[in-house]
Amino acid sequence: MTFTPAIQWYPGHIAKAERQLKEQLKNVDVVFEVLDARIPLSSQHPQVKEWINTKPRLLLLNRMDMIPSDLYTPWQKWFESQGERVYFTNAKAGKGVKEIIKAAKQFGEGVNERRRDRGMMPRPVRAVVIGLPNVGKSALINRLVGKKAVKSARRAGVTRQLQWVRLSDDIELLDAPGVIPWRLENQGDAVRLAICEDIGEASYDNHRVAAALVDLLQELDFSEVLSSRYGLEVGANTGEEYLYTLAHQRYQGDLERVAVLFLNDFRKGVLGAIPLEFPPYVD
Ligand SMILES: Nc1nc2c(ncn2[C@@H]2O[C@H](COP(=O)(O)OP(=O)(O)OP(=O)(O)O)[C@@H](O)[C@H]2O)c(=O)[nH]1
């Protein structure tokens, strides 16, 4: 038996967020798009390319600490095969940040060459960090700026107003990240985004999302992390049955409590570095 999490989205908010994002994109030369390294495919928005148009974009696979390091090269190769450049970051610890600044400078040189060709004065390259809610945009901006300029929190949706920050003589950054709203037509993506908490104004049943995570861990051959953490094998159980049994064995049948505990364990990395997506096979 499979369960479809009841994920709801609010169209008015999505339209407003899209307008704000497009406005931010209009003002910059380079775009840093933050993806979740655990789900690099689901955390991409299909329309971003169209919105950015010809502007250079760097894909940042953030939360690199939450996947095994032997996946870095395969992902890099896969994205290269798609014509994309990716960088791995751990925005919390500040890993991979210098490389991004270097790459932005290179793009800036290109921008200024084109300006010079048109008889215009060179100026610092303007950049913006964009991504789905809670993927680590603010943490990354803090690292790029080098001080706690932007509030970063574990809860989705804390990002505030727009301002430029000078990173160096060559780079200016919008201190407010661009939040990408997600129209979730694809329920598979929706479930993975909900599991990783990379969602904004959405609501869902914790126990259904948690059950889907159990199913996914089993499908991806990670079910032993469950038995070692909770002392209960998944065996032939569905995710829903597993959580139900766990709730009755340990938590007086409190399914919601088990679901929240389990989702938090996954989201905080307590269960280990567990990727939920792998690079697709290419010939
Ligand atoms: N383990 C780990 N945690 C991270 C990383 N980057 C960010 N985080 C954590 O993820 C959570 C969300 O980070 P934020 O920077 O607030 O995310 P955001 O994308 O700005 O979120 P919104 O403002 O809601 O759009 C925080 O608890 C961060 O500490 C990372 O690379 N690794």
Automatic annotation (TrEMBL):
<dbReference type="Pfam" id="PF01926">
    <property type="entry name" value="MMR_HSR1"/>
</dbReference>
<dbReference type="InterPro" id="IPR027417">
    <property type="entry name" value="P-loop_NTPase"/>
</dbReference>
<keyword id="KW-0342">GTP-binding</keyword>
<comment type="similarity">
    <text>Belongs to the TRAFAC class YlqF/YawG GTPase family. MTG1 subfamily.</text>
</comment>
<feature type="domain" description="CP-type G">
    <location>
        <begin position="18"/>
        <end position="182"/>
    </location>
</feature>
<dbReference type="InterPro" id="IPR030378">
    <property type="entry name" value="G_CP_dom"/>
</dbReference>
<comment type="function">
    <text>Required for a late step of 50S ribosomal subunit assembly. Has GTPase activity.</text>
</comment>
<keyword id="KW-0963">Cytoplasm</keyword>
<dbReference type="InterPro" id="IPR006073">
    <property type="entry name" value="GTP-bd"/>
</dbReference>
<keyword id="KW-0547">Nucleotide-binding</keyword>
<dbReference type="InterPro" id="IPR023179">
    <property type="entry name" value="GTP-bd_ortho_bundle_sf"/>
</dbReference>
<protein>
    <recommendedName>
        <fullName>Ribosome biogenesis GTPase A</fullName>
    </recommendedName>
</protein>
<dbReference type="InterPro" id="IPR019991">
    <property type="entry name" value="GTP-bd_ribosome_bgen"/>
</dbReference>
<dbReference type="InterPro" id="IPR016478">
    <property type="entry name" value="GTPase_MTG1"/>
</dbReference>
